[in-house]
Design brief:
four-stranded mixed β-sheet; alpha+beta; 3 domains
């Protein structure tokens, strides 16, 4: 996804996952709090409502990150910004692992829904709504925020969770590259719909969201094309990535970090033939993980 780390503030670290907050969050917070100033008798409750949004989005993104780690992937950074959050997750290149990493985010909202519903029911049935109107209005707002995030994220528009879930399900049927291609095409259709909504409602918010999704759909389309080309390349026998078990392609596809020359690291034993630079690890072009070259060798006596 598009990088959002620039212009962020590091808040804290939990279980090795760093949480960042984009500076624009504060700008949008001021606007939203002022727009809903009449919803409560005190501005403090408006601030608490926005903090509820922050907390729900944060839990959603931590759901992604922790699920990704559960299936053996990498997830160490979350960025929150006005349009939601981005968990930088890198699950193993398997449809099941990707599906669980993505679906865990909306599942957090699913779990929160009955919890918030119970509290809302108690407030109404015990008469607390009249006794504490601000608290009741805040709880109702939190309930709708959580439901809204759940429904919106499940829209089958890449790179929203729904679009990535669609991609993961298609991966089982048509493969990695074609599933991403199909998901991005659906995403482009969703962008067109958001643009129409933005024009009809004269909403800058939907316009910015449409641009963000368009950028990620374009990036996803190019990645799908690259994966398709990569899948057609001849593969080198006797080697396999320790992470995804895929044999590396034959050709000059690795770039030296010293001289920027291209070379086949398996042919040169991880040594750049142009500047003699040696590399401790070799990156897999299919899954992105890097391992020492010796770990790539497939034993001739390994069981079939």
């Amino acid at each position: 996804m598009t990088s959002l780390r620039q212009g962020t503030i590091h808040l804290f670290r939990v279980s090795g996952i760093d949480l960042f907050l984009h500076w624009s969050w504060f700008l949008v917070a001021v606007i939203e709090i002022n727009n809903r100033a009449r919803s409560y008798s005190s501005l403090t409750w408006n601030v608490l409502e926005y903090l509820a949004l922050f907390f729900i989005v944060m839990l959603h993104e931590f759901g992604h990150a922790l699920a990704c780690r559960q299936v053996g992937g990498t997830a160490n950074r979350i960025v929150l910004w006005p349009l939601g959050g981005v968990a930088y997750v890198s699950p193993p290149p398997r449809p099941g692992a990707t599906l669980w990493s993505i679906a865990a985010g909306p599942l957090v909202n699913v779990v929160l829904l009955p919890v918030l519903s119970v509290f809302w029911f108690l407030y109404r049935s015990l008469g607390w709504a009249a006794a504490m109107p601000n608290a009741y209005a805040w709880l109702r707002a939190a309930w709708y925020i959580n439901l809204g995030l759940l429904v919106f994220n499940l829209l089958p528009i890449y790179p929203l969770d729904g679009g990535q879930i669609l991609r993961s399900l298609l991966w089982y049927v048509v493969g990695r590259a074609r599933s991403l291609m199909a998901a991005t095409i659906v995403g482009f259709v969703g962008v067109a719909g958001l643009i129409i909504v933005a024009v009809v409602m004269q909403s800058a918010w939907f316009g910015v969201l449409a641009v963000f999704i368009l950028m990620n759909c374009w990036g996803g389309l190019r990645q799908a094309q690259a994966l398709s080309r990569l899948a057609k390349l001849p593969r080198r026998e006797g080697f396999a990535c320790p992470s995804c078990k895929t044999s590396p392609p034959v050709g000059d596809f690795w770039i030296c970090g010293q001289c920027q020359g291209r070379f086949d690291t398996f042919q040169t034993q991880a040594v750049c033939p142009h500047c003699a630079a040696q590399f401790a690890t070799t990156k897999c072009l299919d899954c992105g993980y890097a391992h020492p070259l010796r770990e790539w060798a497939v034993s001739a006596f390994a069981p079939p």
